[in-house]
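step=encode ok
step=design start
structure_in=
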């Protein structure tokens, strides 16, 4: 039986899901046999491999932060595209699986973003997310979405603040590891997960429930690393318009591609 072309393409895609602190996390994975149609992605069509997509952001000239579940157990990591259109290899130099954080090193030489050291992020604060959601469907270009801080994630059993911000800006697979900006362009957190929308819909709850780990936790994670992050308090009096924030910050936000197979000459575009 001949498989229709659209269905055949979808058969190469799958979601890798697991539970983290009671939340459902899904990383977008795909067999690279179906990748050859995208001219901006460095691949070898003949190689079959699992690929995880995510977003990272610059915290020092050669260092990026991303989510650990994007790069976990992967043998080859690429970040890009740079301003020149190039992709470069990256390596994990520090990680914290419990916090779902990974520090990458790559030859990028890009300006670092500012991180907020404060634990006090007010409810209702305007936030923006820049990243690469669903790159197979939406294309490999940066997207920006906006929302507000809804509240905080609390451990239901111990009633403890676990350091996660709940926000309403739209995210999808591919946004994991990306920055969450305050209204002045300061990073207040990193996208880590979105609750399973199917389960939320079944329960009648709001399906747009996403979480970010606060930037104060990112700064603490970087204390034992070679990185000295730029820090400043969020200015709630400075409100950048979306295009201003995007233009100011987007060069320091990169896509992260993690493969379970090492591909020779992986950084060469097809």
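sequence_out=
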């Amino acid at each position: 039986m001949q498989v229709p072309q659209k269905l055949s393409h979808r058969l190469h895609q799958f979601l890798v899901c697991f539970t983290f602190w009671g939340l459902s996390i899904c990383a977008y994975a795909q067999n690279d046999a179906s990748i050859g149609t995208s001219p901006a992605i460095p691949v070898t069509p003949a190689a079959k491999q699992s690929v995880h997509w995510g977003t990272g952001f610059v915290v020092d000239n050669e260092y990026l932060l991303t989510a650990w579940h994007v790069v976990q157990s992967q043998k080859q990591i690429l970040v890009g595209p740079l301003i020149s259109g190039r992709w470069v290899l990256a390596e994990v130099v520090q990680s914290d699986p419990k916090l779902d954080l990974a520090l990458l090193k790559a030859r990028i030489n890009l300006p670092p973003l500012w991180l907020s050291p404060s634990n006090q992020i007010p409810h209702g604060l305007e936030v923006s997310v820049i990243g690469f959601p669903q790159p197979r469907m939406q294309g490999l270009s940066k997207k920006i979405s906006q929302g507000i801080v809804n509240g905080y994630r609390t451990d239901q059993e111990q009633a403890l603040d676990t350091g996660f911000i709940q926000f309403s800006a739209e995210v999808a697979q591919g946004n994991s590891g990306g920055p969450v900006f305050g209204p002045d362009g300061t990073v207040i957190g990193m996208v880590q997960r979105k609750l399973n929308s199917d389960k939320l819909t079944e329960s009648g709850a709001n399906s747009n429930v996403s979480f970010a780990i606060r930037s104060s936790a990112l700064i603490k994670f970087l204390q034992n690393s070679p990185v000295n992050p730029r820090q400043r308090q969020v200015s709630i009096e400075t409100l950048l318009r979306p295009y201003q924030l995007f233009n100011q910050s987007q060069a320091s936000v990169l896509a992260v591609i993690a493969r379970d197979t090492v591909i020779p000459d992986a950084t060469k575009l097809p």
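step=design ok
step=annotate ok -> The chain has two domains: 5-42+50-109+253-259, 126-249.
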